[in-house]
């Protein structure tokens, strides 16, 4: 049973809800980026950078309130860890989009689409659960269970891509082909980091649930 | 002088002891993996994945108890950091074994054996010290001093391997040889991360010792 | 308004001031290393390693005091995070210098100089602000604003270098040229990590300012 929320508490939950929504915006922009013809991708990367700046401001505002509020709705360190993890998700998604354009990796292997689709789904679930932290009911359990399943899916896609990059003769034809492989590895590593960050968010939500329920 | 341990406290120490034992199992499986003929390695990688799942459950159980226990034997954040660091050791060892098989790096340089041997030794020492956290006597000092020495040893092996990978003409013969180098670098980087994680465990044990003694 | 500092408090601030000064020493050695003719670089790398050992001892002493002092001038976790972030800056700078020598990357692209110059500037600002944490006046604000600007500068240099490494025909001429590219990417990645670590220091200083003012 939760205490009645104070206006200050409401501010924290609103900020976490905003962070969740920003992750959905970011993941969707990343999906549009990889689906776009290469010449059109810069536009999506720029919008993704704007989304990352907004997410950065939400995280910053949470930290500011954390350091200036005497009584917080959750343990201070838990709020810090949750805000940091949400910020890491956005940073990794923005970095991946940025690298795809910077590296001019025009020809993305199909399973990169799987990596990004799992990030979209993870972002949606995260945006859905943030408001539920107020009441911390049983439905919060479903969140981390599903994120864990998605992270396993992202992991499988990542490993399939590693096998492709390192085994396919396509990337061994010439020095230029090896460079293409190194670029792609950087991109898929960053997408995997984003998936791992969503799992960290899920662990933090689980920790909060166990403490508050 | 420590307070008499409650049954709840005993549960924490038993879980840390279990985590320590799982690290020994994991390190030994990794050693068997690299010593095995390449076609036999998959079997060890699968067993290593099972060991990692068990370690994950121990870490999860520690976190669960941490969030649901009012009085903990150590500071809550210290328990969290120790459990996270132990989990990181196992994750890195499992990842290294997984990559060796996924990448089909059949021909491992000799000093990879040194990296893995130091991890085995670090795991044994860690398994030994976990039960000693109950009484936190002077013998705990020897633990972090020896882990630090092992980490320096792992570091030297890692740097020798980097020099080999980047200087040896063997990896410059063809695009395929460069790809082999990139695979091996990924493997040795992951083994170095495992060594660094053991050092983080040692730092955390030292912090606990300084607080509790 | 800050409470009158106790001798124990003074010890913490002196240690943070020492850490700041060590970062200046380290950044300057790194700058001298990259400016030196390749045969002379080993000497600077060895001095950089010594500087890193000293920084390690400062961090260690802060942790020791943290775990043995009942009343600390700041929240315990904040001191821990600040000390860790300062240590990460030095570790990354030392690692970069070490790799440049180990990898024998004789021919460093020009913008590596920009990366290192921003680290020097960040180190100077950090050394300047550490003593100001005692009084935590308004001039502390300028610190994190300027570090953020420097980190953006470092980021631009890093991205320009990535574009160079991955687009320039120079690194696609032969397998050996690709290996050179992989080495350089490792070096610039490590320098970027150092810049990120200074930003983490700045975030931590900002958090302390918000709490204490």
TrEMBL record, chains A, B, C:
InterPro entries: PhoU-like_sf (IPR038078), Put_Phosphate_transp_reg (IPR018445), UPF0111_domain (IPR052912)
Chain coiled-coil ranges: none
Pfam families xref list: PhoU_div
Matches recorded under Gene3D superfamilies: Phosphate transport system protein phou homolog 2, domain 2
UniProt superkingdom: Bacteria
Family: Belongs to the UPF0111 family.
Protein name as it appears in the record: DUF47 domain-containing protein
Organism listed in the record: Ruania alba
